[in-house]
């Protein structure tokens, strides 16, 4: 079934999703290009691939992700010379509209490689093609309306080569309903793995809605990691009333640097935080003038302080950067949180700290190279 209602409205959630992808592409492409310049024998191309690209604009005329990516590339000389943009949509009208819209972008002719738009259904044939290919550094965006075409093999097929990251749309509502639906059993197995899909179905029995969501997202993240993609980062979107999860945006990378970049972007796009710890969530209800008791009682930085003292107990002369890299994966904290907490621990005398030149940390700061000694 083709459902174009996604593009008929210009919803704030869709804008945020597009912003996250476009921002990551911007920073990611800079990192990749700078590396390519240092190693000229490597391929000097980068790619952006979107297999469910849509018509290019929402019904109100606002640019969707493909146009933002191309417009960004046109404005940067290095990107103009390197970018290979490949778009696909199985809806023939969408693909034709996108192709027409791309040709109308000002200065589109300045791109060295003309963007390509295809009209194919995403399935076994495309997965097999990607599995056989050696890809240039690629940002891969998968944004299906439901779950058809989305699989672990598809995500893994583009993550095998250097510099390749993936971002995909995870329609939680449809997948939550599909797990117990025998008619879509094949799709659930493609997404979670055959054995894992069965185990997941059993785990969800008699669980409430909050428990189901946590279990489903955790199983998805673990399934992605089992394929060798170590860093997985979900960002949740709530519905307009803020009382139910609609979908997640899932980021997958083999490299900590990519994980760190995306974590910072998602943190900035979060609609709320507690003690400066971001929610990694877009919730329209967060804009309402209210604060729940649960929010008031939550003290995540206090939890981080206790966890650091326990995790690094007795360890000596560990840099702030090393503490951050070793501890933050799969946790909601960003780099600033670690600096703030370590500064507090130092000020209250709970840890020892020394700078690169043997001097104590400057007041109110805690640099990456500060070495920390934790008590036994």
Automatic annotation (TrEMBL):
Species annotation: Desulfonema ishimotonii
Organism domain of life: Bacteria
Occurrences of domain GMT-like wHTH (ranges): 281-358
Pfam families tied to this protein: GMT-wHTH
Record-given protein name: GMT-like wHTH domain-containing protein
UniProt cross-references to InterPro entries, sorted A to Z: GMT_wHTH, Tcm_partner
């Amino acid at each position: 079934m083709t459902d174009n209602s996604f593009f008929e409205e210009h919803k704030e959630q869709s804008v945020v999703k597009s912003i996250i992808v476009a921002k990551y592409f911007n920073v990611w492409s800079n990192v990749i290009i700078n590396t390519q310049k240092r190693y000229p024998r490597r391929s000097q191309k980068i790619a952006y691939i979107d297999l469910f690209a849509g018509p290019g604009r929402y019904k109100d005329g606002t640019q969707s992700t493909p146009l933002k990516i191309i417009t960004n590339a046109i404005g940067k000389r290095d990107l103009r010379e390197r970018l290979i943009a490949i778009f696909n949509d199985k809806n023939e009208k969408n693909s034709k509209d996108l192709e027409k819209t791309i040709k109308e972008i000002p200065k589109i002719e300045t791109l060295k490689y003309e963007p390509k738009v295809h009209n194919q259904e995403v399935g076994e044939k495309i997965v097999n093609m990607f599995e056989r290919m050696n890809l240039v550094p690629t940002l891969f965006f998968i944004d299906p309306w439901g779950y058809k075409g989305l699989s672990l093999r598809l995500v893994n097929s583009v993550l095998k080569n250097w510099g390749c990251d993936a971002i995909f749309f995870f329609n939680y509502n449809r997948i939550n309903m599909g797990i117990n639906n025998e008619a879509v059993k094949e799709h659930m197995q493609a997404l979670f793995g055959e054995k894992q899909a069965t185990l997941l179905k059993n785990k969800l029995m008699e669980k409430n809605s909050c428990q189901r969501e946590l279990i489903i997202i955790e199983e998805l993240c673990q399934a992605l990691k089992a394929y060798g993609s170590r860093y997985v980062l979900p960002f949740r979107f709530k519905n307009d009333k803020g009382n139910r999860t609609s979908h997640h945006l899932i980021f997958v990378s083999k490299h900590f640097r990519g994980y760190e970049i995306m974590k910072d972007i998602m943190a900035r796009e979060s609609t709320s935080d507690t003690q400066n710890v971001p929610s990694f969530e877009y919730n329209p209800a967060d804009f309402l003038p209210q604060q729940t008791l649960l929010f008031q009682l939550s003290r995540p930085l206090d939890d981080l302080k206790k966890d650091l003292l326990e995790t690094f107990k007795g360890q000596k002369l560990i840099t702030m950067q090393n503490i951050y890299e070793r501890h933050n994966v799969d946790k909601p904290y960003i780099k600033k949180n670690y600096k703030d907490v370590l500064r507090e621990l130092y000020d209250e005398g709970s840890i020892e700290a020394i700078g690169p030149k043997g001097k104590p940390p400057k007041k109110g700061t805690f640099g990456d190279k500060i070495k920390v000694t934790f008590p036994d």
